[in-house]
Amino acid sequence: MHTDAQPTAPVIEFRDVEKQFDDKTVLKDLSFTVERGERVTLIGPSGSGKTTILRLVMTLAELTGGYIFIGGEPLVYEQRNGKRVPVSKRQQKQLTTRIGMVFQQFNLFPNMTVLENIIEAPIHVLGIAKRDAIERAHQLLEQVGLPDKADSHPTALSGGQQQRVAIARALAMDPEILLLDEVTSALDPEVVVDVLQVLRDVAATTDVTMLIVTHEMSFARDVSHRVMMLDGGKIIESADPETIFTNPSHERTQQFLSAVLRDA
């Protein structure tokens, strides 16, 4: 595991974060923290800013205002001499190597085998020896239930298998933080169970911090320590899963959950 400059600092902190797309404000004055080893799920209607939060942590979206800290260190901007200034590219890269993300659409390299997909970043980004990276990749393929698929190409795999490879690829970087963005929404219903079981196992057997966006409410209830309800780019409610799912205090949360659970 990576060492952290400030072990007592939250693993993720959003401080007064703002995100605009053109003239539309998606996130406004958003502040929250995620502690080490905590698993936090973001729920809320489409367009409430859930995926944008993950993309900002992964630096795949530009931060309009405010600050994001990873282990107490500024990710994109910092305060220097009373001004908000960008951090160095080197610092940003060092921090993002501590973060893994599993996307809705798998994002595997089609021209590479499953094994090559998994070992690419550990070798080229972390500088791990190829032999060690290959050994770890085989362990991870065993863990996600695909020990015989190392030499296959992604196009030869089902959607559920591709997503399990994508999980293995993210874990190969030994991340402190794992971001999960609607990882089952592009899958056929019958393979969703397999993918969620892999993630349940990861949650049960590692101390990786997870920030999750999902519409699978039973999964959110099972793996989360905390659930945050977003609406209109703000967190309107944050509580343990039992409270959120059985006794939400905000009327908007009640409406959202009754609609989602009815559809399910």
TrEMBL record:
<dbReference type="InterPro" id="IPR003593">
    <property type="entry name" value="AAA+_ATPase"/>
</dbReference>
<dbReference type="InterPro" id="IPR027417">
    <property type="entry name" value="P-loop_NTPase"/>
</dbReference>
<keyword id="KW-0472">Membrane</keyword>
<dbReference type="InterPro" id="IPR003439">
    <property type="entry name" value="ABC_transporter-like_ATP-bd"/>
</dbReference>
<dbReference type="GO" id="GO:0015424">
    <property type="term" value="F:ABC-type amino acid transporter activity"/>
</dbReference>
<feature type="domain" description="ABC transporter">
    <location>
        <begin position="12"/>
        <end position="257"/>
    </location>
</feature>
<dbReference type="InterPro" id="IPR030679">
    <property type="entry name" value="ABC_ATPase_HisP-typ"/>
</dbReference>
<keyword id="KW-0547">Nucleotide-binding</keyword>
<dbReference type="GO" id="GO:0005524">
    <property type="term" value="F:ATP binding"/>
</dbReference>
<keyword id="KW-0029">Amino-acid transport</keyword>
<dbReference type="InterPro" id="IPR017871">
    <property type="entry name" value="ABC_transporter-like_CS"/>
</dbReference>
<comment type="similarity">
    <text>Belongs to the ABC transporter superfamily.</text>
</comment>
<dbReference type="GO" id="GO:0016887">
    <property type="term" value="F:ATP hydrolysis activity"/>
</dbReference>
<dbReference type="GO" id="GO:0005886">
    <property type="term" value="C:plasma membrane"/>
</dbReference>
<dbReference type="InterPro" id="IPR050086">
    <property type="entry name" value="MetN_ABC_transporter-like"/>
</dbReference>
<protein>
    <submittedName>
        <fullName>L-cystine ABC transporter ATP-binding protein YecC</fullName>
    </submittedName>
</protein>
<keyword id="KW-0813">Transport</keyword>
<keyword id="KW-0067">ATP-binding</keyword>
<dbReference type="Pfam" id="PF00005">
    <property type="entry name" value="ABC_tran"/>
</dbReference>
<keyword id="KW-1003">Cell membrane</keyword>
